[in-house]
């Protein structure tokens, strides 16, 4: 794939991934076939900052976990009222990395 196209994608979407993952994504995209480009661009990535704001406002209800696709954890968080508030507090620190990991899982399907 064209390196200019790859660099543009990585720069545009850097906030959706951990910094350690960016080099891996770039290398895999350079080795990728051009036919997968449109599929890769169509992947809906979640914004970690938006998920953090949702976690601050409604984290006790598990909405943040539902939004990133952790349905089981979202239900558990909802039923326990955010683990009596403790789980909701811990998620304030962990939810952004969890979101970036989920984004990486989505992109990994096309990079493999």
From TrEMBL:
It is a multi-pass membrane protein. Its main location: membrane. InterPro entries: TM2, TM2D1-3-like. The chain crosses the membrane at residues 74-96. It comes from Flavobacterium arcticum. The lineage of its organism: Bacteria, Pseudomonadati, Bacteroidota, Flavobacteriia, Flavobacteriales. PANTHER family: BETA-AMYLOID BINDING PROTEIN-RELATED, TM2 DOMAIN-CONTAINING PROTEIN DDB_G0277895-RELATED. One of its GO terms (cellular component) is membrane. Keywords: Membrane, Transmembrane, Transmembrane helix. It is found in: Membrane. The keyword Transmembrane applies. It comes from the Bacteria. The keyword Secreted does not apply. Residues 46-93 form the TM2 domain. This is TM2 domain-containing protein.
